[in-house]
Design goal:
Elements lengths: L18 E2 L3 H4 L5 H11 L4 H14 L4 H4 L9 H13 L5 E4 L8 H16 L3 E4 L4 H4 L6 E4 L2 E5 L7 H7 L6 H12 L9 H4 L2 H17 L3 H18 L3 H25 L8 E7 L3 E6 H27 L2 H16 L5 H31 L9 H8 L3 H21 L3
Parallel strand pairs: 1-2, 2-3
Antiparallel strand pairs: 4-5, 6-7
Helix pairs in contact: 2-3, 2-5, 3-5, 9-16, 11-14, 11-15, 12-14, 13-14, 13-17, 15-16, 16-18
């Protein structure tokens, strides 16, 4: 689909991604079924009657009655209905080439037959349909069968070559969104790298105490001078750990749009105090004034330094300690509380949940980002504020998926009589 960065070789792309994800839950993010299907065509510029016709046509192809499902909430649908809805969202893009990742996985026989019939209907309508499956009987639906084993081609029923004139049309096409997606997916794994530094050799408890001190100071300090001094120590901490400084700079740039958004809100809502130096002031609607003052500039500097020091504390700690060592350090830190009969196991469980929930959220964010790229909700853009505007729609589906993940987790804990 062209969503991933190439490690080697050459990838030719038309620049359009029409991939139906295997996980239907990851492919749905609008509250109502019709809105979810309309998301892609709306991004293509369709409105009014044309948009409605496209949505109704896509729903008809997957056997979802428009009148029945138009007001249905996506989270209330069954597994099979969600799968059909996610397929309808891709079909509604009206692309010439459609990719389906195991579209029948986890479905009952009736639903599987309906999905296969839908793909056959799309092929008969002139679309190129490519799908993956583990079922031999489903392979019989295809005009061309390719067998892969551990990523290696072992059989191709009808191999073909790309014509030179077709290749020219595809050359030079690159998807910048793939870099964003790859960055998120890299964030899911651990930063740990085995090295022979003093920080790597340190025992779990001293390492945890040093991290905790830096983390707390990064949040608690309020003076720009003290935060500046802490920043110098954080840089020294990074150098001693041999954590790549380039990686820190890249991470700062990754969160820079969100920091900029926060700084903007601080300038917007933070009031002017007596004695502040006012550098510039703009009046809106005769009653509202937006001003840039010395206190607001100081607040922005402090906010950035808070982010900077927290980022270094977390990055270096994850770089120098394995997940097991981090948990051991936390357990050793809590041991004294056992003597005063504090329920340490609950605190430990909370820490473990938070520690392991963050990668899950990054994974969820990557899935949502992938879906929005596919539905043309995220496009290449330049400029800080345009980038922020593009990524704002990620927040609502991410919050919804976070709540859903938390509900699943709470149900699992209750089931185990916690």
């Amino acid at each position: 689909a062209g969503l991933l960065e190439a490690k080697n070789g050459e990838i030719l792309s038309s620049g359009k991604v029409s991939l139906a994800l295997q996980d239907a839950n990851a492919a749905l993010f609008e509250e109502f079924a019709v809105d979810d299907i309309a998301f892609g065509p709306r991004n293509q510029g369709l409105k009014g009657k044309k948009l409605l016709e496209r949505v109704q046509k896509a729903m008809a192809l997957v056997n979802l009655d428009y009148d029945v499902f138009k007001d249905k909430k996506t989270l209330a649908l069954s597994g099979g209905q969600k799968r059909k809805l996610s397929l309808a969202g891709i079909i509604a893009l009206d692309s010439d080439i459609l990719l389906f990742d195991e579209p029948t996985a986890g479905l009952d026989p009736k639903s599987r037959s309906e999905i296969m019939a839908t793909m056959k209907a799309l092929a008969n309508a002139g679309k190129t349909v490519i799908f993956s499956t583990h079922r031999k009987e489903e392979g019989a639906f295809a005009d061309r069968l390719i067998l892969l084993e551990e990523g290696t081609l072992i059989y191709d029923e009808a191999p073909c070559e790309i014509k030179q004139e077709e290749k020219k049309e595809l050359n030079g096409v690159k998807r910048s969104e793939g870099k964003i997606l790859a960055g998120l997916q890299r964030g899911i794994g651990s930063d740990y790298m085995k090295k022979n530094t003093a920080l790597h050799r340190a025992k779990p408890l001293p390492s945890f105490l040093l991290f905790l001190a830096l983390f707390v100071l990064s949040i608690a300090l309020q003076s720009p001078k003290s935060l500046g001094a802490l920043s110098l120590f954080s840089i020294l901490y990074t150098i001693i750990s041999q954590f790549p400084l380039k990686k820190i700079i890249k991470r700062i740039f990754l969160v820079l749009p969100w920091i900029a958004l926060l700084l903007f809100f601080q300038i917007l809502f933070f009031g002017t105090r007596p004695g502040d130096i006012v550098y510039t002031s703009i009046s809106f609607f005769s009653k509202w004034t937006l001003s840039l003052t010395s206190a607001k500039i100081e607040l922005c500097i402090k906010t950035f330094l808070h982010f900077f020091n927290v980022l270094i504390a977390l990055s270096v700690y994850n770089f120098t300690k394995t997940e097991t060592e981090i948990i051991e350090g936390f357990e050793d830190f809590l041991k004294p509380l056992c003597y005063i009969k504090v329920p340490v196991k609950y605190i430990k469980l909370l820490f473990l949940l938070v520690f392991r929930f963050i990668p899950l959220l990054l994974d969820e964010a990557a899935s949502i980002l992938k879906t929005q790229i596919i539905r043309e909700g995220i496009k290449e853009t330049k400029g800080l504020f345009k980038t922020v505007k593009i990524f704002l729609p990620l927040f609502i589906p991410l919050v919804l998926q976070t709540i859903q993940r938390a509900e699943y987790l709470s149900e699992a804990l209750i089931a185990r009589q916690y």
